[in-house]
Write a structure and sequence with these properties.
Elements (H helix, E strand, L loop, with lengths): L1 H48 L4 H13 L8 H13 L2 H16 L4 H24 L6 H5 L4 H5 L7 H10 L3 H14 L3 H9 L2 H7 L3 E2 L1 H4 L2 H10 L4 E3 L10 H10 L1 H8 L3 E12 L2 E11 L4 E8 L5 H17 L9 E6 L4 H8 L5 E9 L5 H4 L5 H9 L1
Parallel strand pairs: 2-7, 5-6, 6-7
Antiparallel strand pairs: 1-7, 3-4, 4-5
Helix pairs in contact: 1-3, 4-5, 5-9, 8-10, 14-15, 16-17
Keywords: Endonuclease, Hydrolase, Nuclease
GO molecular function: endonuclease activity; nucleic acid binding
Amino acid sequence: MEKDYSILLSLFKEQIKVAQIRTVTAANKEMLLLYWKLGQLIIYHQSTKGWGAKVIERLSVDLKKEFPKQKGFSPRNLNYIRKFALEYSIPILLKLNEASSKMSLTNPSQLSIQSIVLDFVQQAVAKIEETDNQMYKIMQQDVAELDERPFYDSILSKISWSHHVILMDKEPHLGKRLWYMHHALEEGFSRNILAMQIESGLFERQISSKKINNFKRTLPPVNSDYVNYFLKDPYIFDFVQANEKADERNVEEQLATHVTKFLLELGKGFAFVGKQVHFEVGGDDFYADLVFYHTRLKCYIIVELKAREFRPGDASQLNFYVNVANDFLKTDDDNETIGLLLCKGKNNVVAEYSLKGLSNALGVSNYQTSKIIPDELKSDLPQLEIIEREFKE
């Protein structure tokens, strides 16, 4: 009976947790829809009645009196609510939903995301001009009767209000903003991590940058597009405090010590295997700097660090370690190992020539260290003691 009861209890817990998540998700959607509609009302009355910004202060006072226990009616938040409705007007919302559907359906690649973002922005600009010309013709009674389905189906309804505030504050480009929404959902970013990624230029580093690799020649098309998509240039390791003379071992030690933060910058799917992984080849000892396993690609990834600019011989060294990993680590169930060289600068032409003729999948990216993290973001990152404990386990 005890065994059967334990199974029953486990099923109960699972269903309750699912229901709790659905309740929170539904509540978030309803709140965002409310904010969107309230913003439409503010815009309508300001544009048709000639009211200025003071109406928001008056609304704040009266709403707090009427709903004393409900948060979200401060002048600051009402201004965000107005901005939320203004930047996601109905025409823009419909175009955003089209672009968002394409992002969800496509296998992500650098070029496909660039194309979707460009098309969406061009269409959105046309709709914004059209909306401006029509002086935002929304009647008060129409706001109550708006078709809510486009908003419910939109990615706007799937992220929290605090995420929206960050996006409105820090990313004015609507196309990039849409990508950050998708990325935040996929990666499970908190609002502070999202802010940090925007400030570090994640879109530019992952989507806009020219990446140096030989993936198209060495990997199947689906894998080559995906690997090229998730790689960044440069990588930013804010948590590494290194001076100009720091060697690879110093940087490597800090990356390994702060493995949780390192994995955050690498992206989803990376699992840490080890540092200075030992291989004995022909009676000699060799040590790969950092070894990871990628759960989606089902392959090992060798990361070699250079605390200097890239040199042609670095590609040969990385190629050697990938060959060794394929023989010593890879099993029949794994795909071919991928190599990633991280350096403190590179000549792209030299790097491209260095990868020519090599049959293993290799990439070369820059990395940066010692960028200061604002105090308000530090609390959202794992504390050193927790990271070290996780690493030991």
